[in-house]
Structures are given as structure tokens and as C-alpha cells.
């Protein structure tokens, strides 16, 4: 794999720093622009979704007022959401892709106004694991949030899509086990998502979480695995987090701190 | 102990709800006003403070722009902060209490514009444990944040105060072990702080965290224990959380997810 840095090199005066867990090597850091404030907005919590809180609490119209880029899901867990250039796409388990309407509701979504502070061109095959490691080292610090926009040509990509649920809603662990994993080959499209720090586990998915839609808007979903042939990785640094909790009684009664939270997040997001 | 509810009783149409962990009994809930949105603002993270990130990242002038009420600490861990009616008080380990100036810096603070949605008068002696349990049951749901303002006459109250640190800053666990616990008897004053949900552990202190200053502004600190003879509990519900991470290199390099995070929070805040 060949990576070509497109960053503006800026000097980064360094004191005596301890290396942070998961922090980038110094060589990588020095290439970054100065850190500027940028907000990531989120409605509800990953832990609420895991507990079966699928009632939409916010319209897409309101959500898009907080950012033009992001991911989430829809009322009743009716498909994966990916927002690109202020357009929300709904990727359903039946394989359909539609432009969502602004009056649809979301029970969980994370958005930001995407401003790339780092970009890197990729040439040569790159696996998901390799890209994930690259992203870990692109950021200034593992303690911030990062929006990730990855535009690329994929040798293959596998995705999953949540299935619309009926009331009474079951916890997410009972909904994802029978989701089909769909494999597409020779596809071009965009992955959008976030890399969030460890202290966000439960609030969001600690680590990388990305959704995909192809350029023709005919397939996509929650990204499971891939090999990318070439592409552009763009990273948007987030220093501020705003979380808006639902007002619904279902949310008020949710169990947001189950003993097996980490396990549930992994099962729901990483299988 | 006698408690007198001062809430406006409103009907609360209820479906079939599962009881949440730590949630209030239904009888308590029905007394509440409808939930309205309210933001709690925080600069930096409890886990960063535990890791020794004591460099102030925000002036009090900026902090007070986000709320007129709250708590925190000062640059170099130089005392406990309590903010009441937009006045920040600095409670130092030497026993002094001064009105902090707006150009002082804070490395960690949580504030809100205090709007009480629930208030309850207390008559008869009430221990910290009893009051804590009462607060747990006053709220609409354990899944929201709560500002707590407790104005009272205390039979006695014990407080601790962090000590100004020198560079290089040690982790908080090494700073709090020799803090004196000061006991005051027959004192009247105000406790200010927050009750935060379990998913905030590390971000803040999950559970109750309050600071105290007496009415004469001559003593106070981080509250350890007390018996309150009479007083007024006021609770401000927070549905939105905004966290602003520091831009400093020290923060970027901090270890925010140590294996013993829970233990460190308990040691720093609850001894």
C-alpha cells in the first residue's frame, strides 16, 4: 500500500510528552494543522439503542440542523442512515436505498459539519484492519472524536443492515443475529462515520463505526469488512461533544448500564 | 425526617414501563412537571483530572457564559470551586475562601443555568446517605443529569479541599491522600453540584458530587459527610450534555481509560 500525505505541514512545538495509549507516533503528529474547535452532535445513546429504545425522538430536519454529515438509524430500527452533503440516505434490509425525507424520525444519530483537517490518498489494496490502524495514527490524539469520510474504489465490501422491528421492541442483541451480510465486488462509494474515544463507550461505539453507500445509491449498510483498491481518507477532528437525550418514557426507563455493555456493543456493531 | 413536597402535581400518563435500575418509584414520578430540555456544560473530563491534567484550559469568564451555577477546580488544582448565582468562590486548602476573578483558569468544571424543576423542604435531621437516597428518587429518571442546590442548616458537615500542585503534576490519586478533612458544626450554607448517570463515569463523577460554602463565605470544600437539620433541596433537570475537551498537549497525551478508573474516581471523590 502507498499513502500520500496531502496535509499542510505545520511545525508542532513539542514539550516532554508521555506517549498516550493508542496515541500516534510523533512523526505522524507533526504533519497536522493546529487543533481548532469543532463540535460533534448526537441524539440519544448507543446504550439506549442496545436496550431497544427505537422510538424516533428527533426529525431529520432537526438533526441536519446540527450537521451535514454522519450516521444513525431510523424509527423502529428501519435501516441504516448515512448522511452525505446534507442528504440522508436510508439503507434498508430489503436492499433498497432511498433518500430519506426530512420528517422521518431517528432514535439515534451522530452528525457534524464535516471539515477535513487531514486527508490522505490511498493507492494499493488496503484491508479494513490496515485502514483502521492508519486512521488510529492519523489523528492528533486518541482523546478527541474524529469524523471519517472515506471515498474509494473497493475490491469488495461487506455490509449489514438492521431490520425494521415491531413493538414491543426487543433489545438490539436479539435483532442483529439474523441480519444478512451482503457482499459487493468492484464497487465505488463513500463510507461515513466516526472514531470515538474509549470514554464514549455506551454513549457511542468506542472506536471506528462507519456506514457505506455506493455512488449509484443502490446498495450499502453498516460496514463489516472490505478491501479498498484506492481512495481518499478525510478526517474531521472533533473537540466538543453535545449529547441530546430523548424525552420519551421509554428512554427514561432504559437500562443504560448493563453489566455486559462492552459485549453488547461488540455484538451489535462488530460482527 | 419530614419532607414536604413543593412540586406542582401534574398527571403523567403512563404506559407499561419496566422499572429502570435506580429509577424512582411510580408514586414519586407522578408528581413531576413535564420534562423540558436543559443543558449541562462541562469543560474537560474527570478522567483527565485524575490523570493530572491540571492546566487551566478555560477562563471563568468563558465558563460563566455557559451557566450561573456549578462546581469545579482551579489551575494547578488550587482549591475547590463552587459557583452560586454567577459568583465563583475559591475554597483553598489553607481554609481561605475568596471570590475568584474572571480571568482565573479552570482545568475542570461543570455548570448549568440553574432552573429548579423540583423542590422539597426538609425538616428534621437528615444524613448524607438519607439525602442521597432522597435525591435518587426525586428525579424523573436515573438516565438524565441533575443539578442539585441544597440550602440548609447543618448540625455538622465535613469537607475536603484539594491542594495546589507543582509541576510536573502528579495524578490526582497522589494528591488527595493527605488532604485534611475539616469538620464544622452548626453551620448554614449552600451545597451545589450534580447527580450524573452511570454512563458519565470518567466524563464526570457518576452519582452525586457536591461542594459546600457557608453563608458567611468563610469555610467550605468538597462535601464528605453531614447531618442537615433543615433545608431546601432544589433539583434542576438536565437533558442535554455538552462537553468541551481541552486543546492542550497534556490533555492530548492523557490516559483517559485506566483499568482502575472506577476505583480512582471513588478514591478521589468519595473518601
TrEMBL record, chains A, B:
<feature type="compositionally biased region" description="Basic residues">
    <location>
        <begin position="16"/>
        <end position="33"/>
    </location>
</feature>
<dbReference type="InterPro" id="IPR005128">
    <property type="entry name" value="Acetolactate_a_deCO2ase"/>
</dbReference>
<dbReference type="Pfam" id="PF03306">
    <property type="entry name" value="AAL_decarboxy"/>
</dbReference>
<keyword id="KW-0005">Acetoin biosynthesis</keyword>
<keyword id="KW-0456">Lyase</keyword>
<protein>
    <recommendedName>
        <fullName>Alpha-acetolactate decarboxylase</fullName>
        <ecNumber>4.1.1.5</ecNumber>
    </recommendedName>
</protein>
<comment type="pathway">
    <text>Polyol metabolism; (R,R)-butane-2,3-diol biosynthesis; (R,R)-butane-2,3-diol from pyruvate: step 2/3.</text>
</comment>
<dbReference type="GO" id="GO:0047605">
    <property type="term" value="F:acetolactate decarboxylase activity"/>
</dbReference>
<dbReference type="GO" id="GO:0045151">
    <property type="term" value="P:acetoin biosynthetic process"/>
</dbReference>
<feature type="compositionally biased region" description="Polar residues">
    <location>
        <begin position="1"/>
        <end position="13"/>
    </location>
</feature>
<feature type="region of interest" description="Disordered">
    <location>
        <begin position="1"/>
        <end position="33"/>
    </location>
</feature>
<comment type="similarity">
    <text>Belongs to the alpha-acetolactate decarboxylase family.</text>
</comment>
<keyword id="KW-0210">Decarboxylase</keyword>
Amino acid at each position: 500500500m502507498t499513502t500520500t500525505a496531502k496535509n499542510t505541514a505545520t511545525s508542532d512545538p513539542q514539550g516532554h510528552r508521555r506517549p498516550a495509549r493508542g496515541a500516534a507516533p510523533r512523526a505522524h503528529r507533526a504533519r497536522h494543522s493546529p487543533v481548532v474547535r469543532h463540535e460533534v452532535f448526537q441524539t440519544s445513546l448507543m446504550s439506549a439503542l442496545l436496550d431497544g429504545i427505537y422510538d424516533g425522538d428527533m426529525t431529520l430536519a432537526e438533526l441536519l440542523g446540527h450537521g451535514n454529515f454522519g450516521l444513525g438509524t431510523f424509527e423502529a430500527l428501519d435501516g441504516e442512515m448515512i448522511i452525505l452533503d446534507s442528504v440522508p440516505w436510508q439503507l434498508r434490509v430489503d436492499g433498497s436505498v432511498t433518500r430519506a425525507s426530512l420528517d422521518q424520525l431517528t432514535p439515534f444519530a451522530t452528525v457534524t459539519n464535516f471539515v477535513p483537517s487531514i486527508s490522505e490518498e490511498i493507492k494499493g489494496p488496503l484491508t479494513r484492519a490496515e485502514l483502521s490502524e492508519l486512521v488510529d495514527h492519523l489523528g492528533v490524539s486518541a482523546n478527541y472524536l474524529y469524523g471519517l469520510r472515506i471515498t474509494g474504489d473497493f475490491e469488495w465490501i461487506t455490509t449489514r443492515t438492521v431490520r425494521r422491528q415491531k413493538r414491543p421492541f426487543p433489545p438490539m442483541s436479539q435483532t442483529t443475529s439474523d441480519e444478512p451480510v451482503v457482499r459487493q465486488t468492484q464497487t465505488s462509494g463513500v463510507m461515513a462515520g466516526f472514531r470515538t474515544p474509549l470514554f464514549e463507550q455506551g454513549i457511542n461505539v468506542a472506536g471506528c463505526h462507519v456506514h457505506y453507500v455506493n455512488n449509484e445509491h443502490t446498495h450499502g449498510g453498516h460496514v463489516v469488512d472490505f478491501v479498498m483498491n484506492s481512495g481518499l481518507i478525510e478526517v474531521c477532528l472533533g473537540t466538543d461533544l453535545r449529547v441530546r437525550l430523548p424525552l420519551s418514557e421509554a428512554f427514561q426507563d432504559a437500562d443504560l448500564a448493563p453489566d455486559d455493555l462492552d459485549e453488547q456493543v461488540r455484538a451489535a456493531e462488530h460482527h
